[in-house]
Amino acid sequence: MNISVRRFRGSDGERFAVLVDEQGMPLYYPTLFTTWALRAKSVAASSITNALNALKALIAWEVQLGLNLERDFAQGKSLDENQIRHLSDFLQRSLNGDKTKSLVPIKRKPKIVSASVHYYRLCVAALYVEFLWHRVAPSAAGVDRINKMTTMIKANRPLVSKKSDPDRDEIHISSAVMSKLEDAIKPGSPNNPAVEYGLQLRNALMFSLLRLTGIRRGELLNLRVEDIDFGANTLAVVRRPDAKGDTRKHQPAVKTRPRRFYVDPALVSKIKEYVLTQRNKLPYAKRHGYLFVTHKSGPAQGHPLSIAAFQKWMSKLSRVVEGAGFHAHALRHHWNYEFSRMADAKGMSDAKEQQTRSYLCGWSPTSGTAVRYNRRHTKEQAWTLALELQKRYIQQSVEKL
């Protein structure tokens, strides 16, 4: 059974996602589940898509074992312990490029997902199994059996320990890599992945905004021309859920608080140049206000830049410096690291630094997120102090000899 997740946009701008079969028909109970249990609770469209991908893995497991949960539950049959264990093992597998082959090398290890993805899939499976049981199982089946099933499914969830996971700040962009990237994407650079000048200017501006302001990918792609005050040199981050004027089925989301802050006049001037000399050349771009648009010829030309197109550009950019592990969110971490260094240089108190960082990044002052993004700088300070203590001890030991 070949099923897929399909996104679409309603006439009122609301984004939807459904699980469809080979003919493009929505699957009844998965659609009812997302509508009843998720959309009714105002779960975001992106979160619903993640849940549907988890359900897709659950249905793939059904197909492999020749099961039909709707039919079995309707007959009062529940999953036993062995089936649930097999389900847990199956949901640990990556389904990307998974195709049935007659011959499979014995030594080849199946690709597996991360512990957090495995955990999430089992959570969704438990919710869906409980939902489906209450819809189709005979009333005489009782609630004890479904409670037992969901408890066993949840018991198979892996332990997701944050203690053993590498810190986010360990994956960051070094100054050398940053310098090479900036040199490569300058308009006119021979190493620039883009050829056309308008595209080079757009890409350079996107990189500069991510690099210099610390905004997220969704916030960047959600920017509209009117969010830039060209007179006051300010930029506004605005939440626009389910915007009617946004033609993208997968709408970039602003997950943080709305805010406004100053931007360097030189960068604002470059944005103005892009709007007047490059963006305005594309006819469809005049029908909406989104700042960054598709330049490539075709039906999407002039439309707001999609997340997929942005990711494709990021992939090309990551190949400029091989092995750098570059991704968009690393620029946000880099900005926070540079902000920490500047705060220290200015003698800013810890409380003031956290308050300022939280505003600029759109976080609640009490969320604790500012502390997490400051870990890299905090660790460097700890390393410096530890090394100083070691040198002091060694010096004292040498003097005693």
Descriptive overview:
The chain is mainly alpha-helical and 401 residues long. Helix content is 50%, strand content 5%. The chain folds into two domains: 4-155, no CATH class; 173-401, Intergrase catalytic core (hpI Integrase, Chain A), CATH 1.10.443.10. The strands form two sheets. A three-stranded antiparallel beta sheet has the order 3-4-5, with no helix packed on it. A two-stranded antiparallel ribbon has the order 1-2. Helix 8 runs antiparallel to helix 10 (265-277) and helix 8 crosses helix 12. It starts with a strand and ends with a helix. The model is unreliable at 100-104 (pLDDT under 50).
- The percentage helix is 40-55%
Structural category is mainly alpha
Query: What is the string of helix and strand elements?
Result: EEHHHHHHHHHEEEHHHHHH
| Overall CATH class of the largest domain | Mainly Alpha
The number of domains is: 2
Average pLDDT metric: 86
> Do you know the CATH topology of the largest domain?
hpI Integrase, Chain A
Strand content range: 5-15%
Biggest sheet strand order reads 3-4-5
Please state the overall shape, judged from the principal axes of the Cα atoms: globular
Number of separate strands: 5
**CATH evolutionary superfamily of the largest domain:** Intergrase catalytic core
Q: Note poorly predicted spans.
A: 100-104
Give Rg in angstroms. 26 Å
- Judging by the overall fold, what is the CATH architecture of the largest domain? Orthogonal Bundle
> What is the terminal separation in angstroms?
78 Å
Number of helices in the DSSP assignment:
15
Largest sheet: 3 strands, antiparallel
